[in-house]
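look at this:
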Amino acid sequence: MSKLFDWLAIICAFLSIWLAILYNFIEFEIFNEYHSMISFVPVIAILSLGIYSVVTILWRVYNFNDCHKEAFELHAEIKEARADLITRGFVFQ
């Protein structure tokens, strides 16, 4: 639950700063010049998070390790189980 509170604290801090800049509670000349861009900052942040998530998932899928030794052991166990079932009278189709 503490990770949830960490994320909520970050989101609240970001939103409070963004709203303060958007509604001119913090007055700097540069904020007035880029007021139209500042209003789209949350959309840009969400899109960036989505792109980062997709790239991270794709990278981890690409680097997923194959377990050849374990696959060989699993096939051997399957053959052993089939042989045991055949000796007990099970018929495979």
In short: Residues 1 and 57 are 24 Å apart (CA to CA). Helices lie at 2-22, 29-33, 35-38, 41-62, 68-87. Residues 2-87 form one domain. The chain has a mean pLDDT of 89.
